[in-house]
Amino acid sequence: MPGTTRIAVRTILPLLLVLVSLSVGMSSARRVQGRLLARALEARHDRWHGSSVGPARRGTTEQNSVTNVLDHGARAGDGSFDNAVPFQAALNAALAAGGGIVWVPAGQFTFHSSITVPVGVSLEGTYRAPPAHNVGEGGLPPTHGSVLLVVGGRGEASGTPFATLKQDATLRGVVLYYPDQDPKAAPTPYPFTLSLSVNSAVIDVEGVNPYQFISAVGAARHYIARVYGQPSLIGIYVDDVTDIGRMIDIHFNPWYSQHPEYMRLQLTRGRAFVLGRSDWQFCTRLFAFAYSVGFHFIETAAGATNGILEESGADMAYNASVLIEQVDVWGLQIAACEFTSFASPQWANVSVTSIELVVAPTNSGTVTVSNTAFWGPSYSIASVAGSGMVSFSGCTFTQWDVHHKGLPAVTIAGATAVSITDSLFLQNNCISGTCFSQIDRTRESSGAIMVANNIFTGAIHNLVALCSKRSSDSCLVINNVVRL
Ligand SMILES: *[C@@H]1O[C@H](CO)[C@@H](O)[C@H](O)[C@H]1NC(C)=O
Ligand SMILES: *[C@@H]1O[C@H](CO)[C@@H](O)[C@H](O)[C@H]1NC(C)=O
Hints:
Layout: H1 2-24, H2 26-50, H3 61-65, E1 66-68, H4 84-96, E2 100-103, E3 107-111, E4 115-117, E5 121-124, E6 146-150, E7 163-165, E8 170-172, E9 175-177, E10 192-195, E11 201-207, E12 212-217, E13 223-229, E14 234-239, E15 245-252, H5 260-269, E16 271-275, E17 278-289, E18 293-297, E19 305-310, E20 313-315, E21 320-324, E22 327-335, E23 338-339, E24 355-359, E25 367-370, E26 373-374, E27 380-384, E28 389-393, E29 396-397, E30 410-412, E31 417-421, E32 424-425, E33 430-431, E34 434-435, E35 439-441, E36 448-452, E37 455-457, H6 464-468, E38 475-478, E39 481-483
Parallel strand pairs: 1-2, 2-5, 3-6, 4-7, 5-8, 6-9, 7-10, 8-11, 9-11, 10-12, 11-13, 12-14, 13-15, 14-16, 15-17, 16-18, 17-19, 17-20, 18-21, 19-22, 20-23, 21-24, 22-25, 23-26, 24-27, 25-28, 26-29, 27-30, 28-31, 29-32, 30-35, 31-36, 36-38, 37-39
Antiparallel strand pairs: 33-34
Helix pairs in contact: 1-2
Bound molecules: 2-acetamido-2-deoxy-beta-D-glucopyranose (2 copies).
Signal peptide: 1-29
Pfam families: Pect-lyase_RHGA_epim
InterPro entries: Pectin_lyas_fold, Pectin_lyase_fold/virulence, RHGA/B-epi-like_pectate_lyase
């Protein structure tokens, strides 16, 4: 009975919250409370509104649920015409009909202003897999399928996004292209292309050359899947997500322009994935090539992330493949990933310290890294600071110290505990007969250290110093073997 359930929820919820706060402390309780409350409210929303849906309207699915933008006056191939007006009319008609699909046929549709995809409406184009257009530097818009040309918002980095997706709204099967961007010059700022809300989704979409691509702020259970493109400043920005956010099969690669003038911003300031607060963010098969930072975990006013990053990679990150300024105490689990971090003079001459995984002094959360390949040239592989716990297990470490400065693969510069186990160090750390530690620690570090069951190449250089050169909580270097 609806009434009974509601009362039960009301009675049980505070009880749960008391138990939760007693067992995990106040700040954790606040977050769990947020999640439970959100779910309870949704359950109530469904009960109130779910049953009011009447019987299905008669006729075929197409007649009743699909609206064609052409029937509302949309015009392909006319750059001076603003398709925002007819598209919005079609989207509003779909909403008025009780939700449905707004169909975008093949063609190039120009937009001088923004659109909103209403609650329960899907804006759909022709693609059923993520397209990737090798535009080169010709800068001509893609010609096949549903192509949306965005010209509005030029010069306004914090302006209104091109498309705002409301709750349960979807954008699917389209290519987004900024025709006024110049592939041979520094990118011009534009607002975010897409802004998501609770439960909205972006599927089979290409952002050929957005300045800032997708914003998922306050977008609980966002679903971003099968998305390709070359965003220059920010790929996807996630924050204030209080229930599981999902990103899957996303690939950012310089298909639009590899011109040094265009690439410089991306390589020195561009970040493919930026994550503020998300209460379990699931990230699967994400890839970013040629950004300053591949995956950036930050603290915002809303908090930080606890999440899973798996089967993902960031290659040729100029600053860091993964930069963790803050993750939550429940942590970030990095599994089965691959990272490289270096600055190539072929792309942009920048003096930068390229480290594949950086746990910054600000971090107090937990980071576990397993079965991950740190490969490709880098200055150093990992730098671990802060006051959290960090572990590496089953990883491969190779090709670090490209500048031959005698740097370790891993520098422990803080953290209350660091564990490196069951990993393979593929290179000897020697330069013309002088050898350097594969793992080192700075004077700032005083946490517990465990280095065990690893295989080193050539020799184990001075790992004993890890435990002897500074007193720490406890320190164990044991069961490591060498292959010559
Ligand atoms: C990358 O490193 C450079 C040089 O240290 C710095 O100026 C720049 O702000 C860094 N970029 C990011 C996104 O952290
Ligand atoms: C970087 O500098 C080198 C040496 O001066 C030059 O050959 C190369 O073209 C430069 N790269 C870029 C992207 O400007």
